[in-house]
Design goal:
It is built from 5 helices and 2 strands. The chain is mostly helical and about 150 residues long.
Length: about 150
């Protein structure tokens, strides 16, 4: 699954989550049956989009994308639909979140992810290595095609 599709699914899922939150905020003005069905429907669609998204990306990236999209949507709805105002600090925080998502989504053109990006993994030790000291695992850092350290 392309990363573009993953981002689109994160945006769709976050949109449904924020929509359900808006219905909860307006709960007092809606008939209870309509409110319950709207919230359940939106949460179900959000979960469906999230499940499909999780098949195509790492869990950490999915969480960051969802969080960022929910923050942006939530603040936009709060500002435009409910007339809330924000301080300079809150606006700067939103900008940092958007910048972070941009950095996360950016992939160098022509880069092979397996050869260009650093990978950190925890690997079991070989037989007899540090087992007497009670250290059964070691941290291995790999850079592209270089041998493990």
């Amino acid at each position: 699954m392309s990363y573009f599709i993953v981002v689109i699914l994160a945006v769709v899922s976050a949109g449904f989550y924020v929509g359900a939150t808006v219905v909860l905020k307006l709960w007092h003005a809606l008939p209870p049956t309509v409110a319950v069905l709207a919230v359940l429907g939106m949460m179900g669609l959000a979960c469906l989009a999230e499940v499909v998204m999780l098949r195509g990306t790492k869990l950490g990236e999915a969480i960051i994308l969802l969080f960022a999209a929910e923050v942006v949507f939530g603040l936009a709805v709060s500002l435009y639909a409910f007339g809330d105002t924000f301080s300079m600090r809150e606006g700067l925080g939103l900008g940092v979140i958007v910048l972070g998502v941009g950095i996360l989504c950016w992939q160098p053109s022509g880069a092979d992810a397996s050869a260009e990006q650093a990978m950190i993994s925890v690997e079991p030790d070989g037989p007899g290595i540090n087992t007497a000291q009670g250290a059964p695992r070691r941290l291995a850092l790999r850079m592209g095609s270089l041998p493990p350290v």
